[in-house]
Amino acid sequence: MQSARSGLWTSLAVTALALLGCGTPAAPTVKKDPIGTNSVDKTTPVAEASDTLELKELSWDQLQEVVARHKGKVVVVDIWSTSCEPCLREFPHLVALQQRHPDDVVCISFDCDYIGAKNKAVGYYRERVLKQLTSQHAEKLINGMSTLAADELFQQLDIDSIPAVYVYDRTGKLSKRFDNRTPASDSEEGISYEKQIDPLVADLVKADNI
After folding, report:
1. Domain range spanning residue 172?
2. Where residue 84 sits, what CATH number does that domain have?
3. Which of 5, 25, 168, 172 is most buried, with most CB under 10 Å away?
4. How far apart are CA 48 and CA 70, in angstroms?
5. At residue 38, does pLDDT exceed 70?
6. Are 118 and 30 in contact (CB under 8 A)?
């Protein structure tokens, strides 16, 4: 009898402790990381670029194929880099040129930040180029990055420096190349969209529309 009473009291004690929340603690709730253990480190820099802005890696020959595909329109190719101050100064004029002639002109920006270093492939420069293009609202342009190192590209094109701008007429023929050998005037160095390129493009558009 004593044994039965002891068992009964033990059972009642356990039940009471459970009701009071003093029993065996429940397993802790584990909150899952919504990002996941395989996510990219939050400190990884992300290019602040528009979702609609495309940037393709191209050789000069591939770029010429792009130009050829736009026969029927005047095509302007601007060779630039993020480290070239004259390039950055003139770049807004390229964007404005495309805005003024949305139906008759195709503007192409061709970046040459890539210098050919073994440990810095073309993609290494992609983030900085995208950031610059986005800041200039270049979504309406065709944007490319040279897969050839800058010095080799300059040698291939026989140019001394950038910016350099190529203007093609509606037939796809090169109308004129502007670089440091074709300054805006005898008293100025470099090129000018306002004084040189814009007037030529306007003339080509008007002439080909007659």
Report:
1. 56-209
2. 3.40.30.10
3. 168
4. 29
5. no
6. no
Give the model confidence (pLDDT) of 62-77 as tens digits. Answer: 999 999 999 999 999 9
* Structural domains of the chain, count: 1
Q: Is the pTM of this model over 0.90?
A: no
Q: Put residue 174 in one of left, alpha, beta given phi > 0 → left and psi -120 to 50 → alpha.
A: beta
- As given in the structure block, the two tokens for residue 101 are 């002639």
Q: Report d(CA 91, CA 72) in Å as an integer.
A: 24
What is the distance between the alpha carbons of residues 52 and 134, in angstroms, rounded to a whole number? 10
36, part of any domain: no
DSSP secondary structure letters along 72-113: TSEEEEEEE-TT-HHHHHHHHHHHHHHHH-TTTEEEEEEE--
Distance of CA 2 to CAs 5, 8, 9, 10, 12, Å? 5, 10, 11, 12, 15
The reply to whether 126 falls in a domain is yes
Let me know the angle formed at the C-alpha of 84 by 82 and 85, rounded to the nearest 5 degrees.
Answer: 105
Asked if residue 99 lies in contact with residue 76, where contact means CB atoms within 8 angstroms, the answer is no
176 - beta bridge partners?
167
User: What percentage of the chain reaches a pLDDT higher than 90?
Assistant: 68
